[in-house]
Amino acid sequence: MIPDARVGKPTSRPRLFDPRPARAALLCATAALLPVGYVLAGAVPLFVLWMWENAAARRWPWEPTPLDRMLFLWLALVGVSSVISPHRDLAVPNAVLLGLGPVAALAPTLRTLRERPGWVRNLFAAWVVGGVAAGSWVVWRYVHAAGGPGDLPQLGVNAAGTVLLASSLVGLGLCAAGGTTLRVLGVAAQVPILAGLLATFSRGSWLGWVGGLVCFTLLAGARSRRTRWLAAALAGAAVAVVVAYLPVQARALSTLDPGRNQDRLLLWRASLRMAAEHPWVGVGFGAFVREYPKYRLPQDPNTAPPFAHNLPLSLAAETGLLGLVAFAVFVGALLRYGWRSLQRAPPGELALQAGAAAALSGMLAQQLVDGTLQSFHLGLGFWLLAAVLLAGQPTSDRVRGIPCRAFPS
To answer: Could you tell me if 111 and 16 are in contact, meaning their C-beta atoms sit under 8 angstroms apart?
Structure first.
């Protein structure tokens, strides 16, 4: 006997297969494969299972959230921008992929966390295992590149930095939430993860990690002196490596040299011109690369960049001010709901919530000088973390009780 999805009453239909354990396992596999660059190996079967599960239950493949209206408004604006774009052959598929992200990652993760509130530990543990593998891989490639930046076969240098900074901060939350054994293993996992992060030589990723670490200390450290000491120890170790290892030190100091960042400054100037000429709906989501040659300055070494290396600038150019404002409102509301969850979380869960908030904040901080979250692969990580922050928020029975009209009885 299973409950009827529309009226909440028992029905005589036998359950031939319970998809919930398989869904939870595939989510863990997706989290573990995300840092090493093979997330689709877990996300594709997860998406297929998710669609089958909801079709069998005669309901929409969605889990209601308090932010649905803001999320759908942003996606709708991106869709309109892409449909009217002169590059709709590129923009429309990109907009479709953007819309698939919440369905493939946010919705199944959120439902799983509501069914199994403590399961976030398993998700984060799988993520950290993948981060250890990714960090070790990056270090190995750095050594064999004779001093060149380390990366991952399926991810570039900056994207590798993104997944590693998130793995470190998620692992910090797991470490602070666990007992002595888990804490020791969590600290040990930070070694290959942070070594890989340094080996990417991605300054934006370093910036994001520092910002995320500060965020974690403020959110989780307020209730735990041990957590503050752990964060301080990681920060001290990172500073020691930067001071002692001259290549890393030189890379970090180059951030302050305008001459060595001239290409990025020229890219931003051209992106501003593009956004100014298409102020309302932009050039179409993902069409930046095609429009950029029209705005490229003569001395600019960037010939066909895929994005503006600044997420707000990219969104302004591709989706216009309407799309940028809608995205900012959605992210602001997401962080506000995450803050509410943190305020009422018990001590053990507080660290996990703080780890998710710190990882999300660190990724967003990196996007001020990068655009890695615009890829479908890394975007899935954003939706996984968003689900963790939203899992503690109540959803009204009125929203939960809406039957799926697409599957009439």
So the answer is: no
Residue 177 CA, chain-centre distance (Å), reads 21
Q: What are phi and psi of 8, to 5 degrees?
A: 75, 15
CA–CA gap between residue 52 and residue 19 (Å, rounded): 9
Tell me the two tokens of residue 205: 């990723």
Amino acid identity of residue 91, one-letter, is A
8 Å CB contact between 82 and 95: yes
Maximal C-alpha separation, the chain = 72
Cα(137)–Cα(165) distance, integer angstroms: 15
Distances 152 to 10, 134, 349, 366 between C-alpha atoms, Å: 50, 7, 32, 18
Look at 48-62, 111-125, 164-178, 236-250 and tell me which has the smallest mean pLDDT: 236-250
Distance CA 270, CA 398 (A): 48
Per-position DSSP letters for 229-273, written without gaps between them: HHHHHHHHHHHHHHHH-HHHHHHHHGGG-GGGGHHHHHHHHHHHH
55-86: pLDDT as tens digits: 999 999 999 999 999 999 999 999 999 999 99
Beta-strand relationship, 10-11 and 2-3? antiparallel
Residue 394 pLDDT > 60: no
279: left (phi over 0), alpha (psi -120 to 50) or beta: alpha
C-alpha to C-alpha distance for 92 and 39, rounded to whole angstroms: 23
- Determine the Cα–Cα distance for residues 144 and 164; give it in Å rounded to an integer: 19
Query: Of 179-193, 219-233, 321-335, where does mean pLDDT reach its minimum?
Result: 219-233
Quote the CA–CA distance of 388 and 217 in Å, as a whole number. Answer: 18
- The number of helix segments (H) and strand segments (E) in the chain equals 17, 2
pLDDT at 398 over 50: no
Sequence-distant (6+) residues with CB within 8 A of 84 are 281, 284
Q: Would you place residue 348 in the very low, low, confident or very high pLDDT band (cuts 50, 70, 90)? A: confident
Mean pLDDT of 95-115: 96
pLDDT at res. 222: 65
For 152-189, the DSSP string reads BTTB-HHHHHHHHHHHHHHHHHHHHHS-HHHHHHHHHH
**CA 225 to the chain's CA centroid:** 28
- How many whole angstroms separate alpha carbon 261 and alpha carbon 395? 46
Listed in sequence order, the residues at least 6 apart from 163 whose beta carbon sits closer than 8 Å to its beta carbon are: 34, 35, 37, 131, 134, 155, 378, 381
